[in-house]
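Notebook, bench 3.
Goal today: get a predicted structure for peptide-methionine (S)-S-oxide reductase from freshwater metagenome so we can plan the truncation constructs. The sequence was checked against the plasmid map this morning, with no discrepancies at the termini. Length recorded as 207 residues. Pasting the sequence as submitted so the record is complete.
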Amino acid sequence: MVDPSDALPGHREPVFTVPDTHAVLGSSLTGPWAAGTDRIYLAMGCFWGAEEIYWRLPGVLSTSAGYMGGISPNPTYEEVCTGRTGHTEAISVTYDPAVLSTYELLKVFWENHDPTQGYQQGNDVGTQYRSAIFYTNDEQRDLIERTRDAYAKVISDRGYPAITTQIGPAAEQIYFLAEDYHQQYLYKVPNGYRCHANTGLALPAIS
C-alpha cells in the first residue's frame, strides 16, 4: 500500500459528473433509500464484473461502481490505477434484506472471487484489486466475520492460504463514484472484460 506521504493529492471537488440513474434497474445510484433497505460496499477485483453479478440478484435495488478504502479524495480511474491513491475498485450494493438476506449476499461475495490473493485478482495485479468489505451495520459485521471464518476453514482444507480480505466499517471510509463509463459497464459493453478468479468452493451454511 502507498504510504500517505507518497499518495497523490487528489482533488478538492469531483472532476467528473455521473448521472444518478442506474442503466439497468432504473433506480438512483445514490439514494435516498426507503426504510428497511441496507447498503454494503464490496471489492472483489475488477468492479465491472462484480457489479454485474449483483445487479442481477433479486432483492438488489441499486448498484454502482466506485473507489473506496483510499487516501486521495475524488480520485480518477487513471489515478487509482497508479496505486498511489490507496483505493480499491469497489461496488455499492443497496438491497432489501427481506428479499436478499445478508448471508446470501455474502455467499455470492465469497464464492465469486478468490479472497486469498492479496493485492491482485487473477491477472489483475495491484492494490486497487484487493478484496474488501465495508459494512454499514452490526448485523453485517457479525455475518461478515462468521462467513469469513467458515469459508477460511473450507478453503484451507483445500490448500488455499489465509483470507486477505480487508474488513472495516464504511463510516470510516469515503466511497467515491467511478466515472460514468464504468457504471453498469457490462450492460453497456456486453462482451466486455469479466474477472471471476474464484476458488470454485462453496460457503457452508452457518447457524
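The mean pLDDT is 97. The chain has one domain: 4-10+21-188.
Flagging this for group meeting.
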